[in-house]
């Protein structure tokens, strides 16, 4: 199909959508061809005259086969998702500035080591649900600040174990629980079905946002000294 034919076809689909979606009226519509992937991307913004709800329809039109893939996202769904993410991020961001001289991520790691002293860097990564490289960077930072120590394991000279220093113990004792700990407890409290759905949904979201290749860091730790 030629590009101008596909354009007409996409607009026809949108016109049909408006016809069958009454009592809804169109706010705007947009058609965008992508010659590389062979799809025509179309979008219509509709408003329900009964309840005022905004609905966004998106289409992918394969102009070689006249196949239409339709998805829709209401503003109520989008807002519910965004509000939940905002609440979590806001709590973590506030906490990152509430610990004098330390970030909440550092307190989180120190408290984890307090309960699992003798853990290796790999163990720490698993306990804090981060990558080994992230845990290694955090350990180096905390060691430089005199908050933890590395010791060679007595029964395995190849294994390096991590222990809190006296200063590290004092920091843990003086600080409240972090939002990271509360969040992990909240996830653990979910049913198995909800945890699976949450994991799958967040994975799909990061992939759709082209973020799946980014190495996860501890919350807000990358921007702190």
Automatic annotation (TrEMBL):
Name assigned to this protein: Winged helix-turn-helix transcriptional regulator
Domain of life: Bacteria
Matches recorded under PANTHER family: MARR FAMILY REGULATORY PROTEIN, TRANSCRIPTIONAL REGULATOR, MARR FAMILY
A biological process term (GO) from this entry: response to stress
Species for this entry: Allorhizobium terrae
GO molecular function, one term: DNA-binding transcription factor activity
Keywords per UniProt: DNA-binding, Transcription, Transcription regulation
SMART domains associated with the record: HTH_MARR (SM00347)
Boundaries of every HTH marR-type domain copy: 78-207
Alphabetical list of InterPro entries matching this protein: HTH_MarR-typ, MarR/SlyA-like, Tscrpt_reg_MarR-type_CS, WH-like_DNA-bd_sf, WH_DNA-bd_sf
């Amino acid at each position: 199909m030629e590009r101008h034919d596909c354009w007409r076809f996409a607009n026809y689909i949108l016109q049909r959508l408006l016809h069958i979606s009454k009592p809804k009226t169109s706010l705007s519509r947009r058609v965008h061809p992508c010659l590389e992937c062979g799809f025509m991307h179309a979008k219509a913004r509709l408003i329900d005259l009964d309840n005022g709800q905004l609905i966004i329809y998106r289409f992918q039109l394969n102009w070689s086969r006249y196949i239409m893939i339709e998805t829709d996202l209401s503003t109520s769904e989008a807002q519910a998702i965004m509000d939940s993410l905002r609440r979590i991020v806001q709590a973590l961001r506030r906490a990152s500035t509430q610990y004098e001289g330390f970030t909440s991520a550092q307190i989180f790691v120190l408290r984890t080591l307090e309960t699992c002293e003798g853990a290796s860097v790999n163990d720490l990564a698993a306990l804090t649900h981060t990558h080994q490289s992230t845990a290694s960077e955090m350990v180096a930072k905390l060691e430089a600040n005199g908050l933890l120590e590395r010791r060679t394991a007595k029964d395995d000279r190849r294994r390096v174990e991590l222990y809190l220093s006296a200063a590290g113990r004092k920091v843990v004792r003086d600080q409240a629980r972090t939002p990271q700990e509360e969040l992990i407890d909240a996830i653990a409290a979910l049913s198995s079905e909800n945890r699976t759905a949450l994991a799958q949904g967040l994975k799909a979201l990061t992939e759709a946002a082209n973020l799946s290749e980014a190495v996860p860091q501890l919350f807000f730790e990358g921007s702190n000294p």
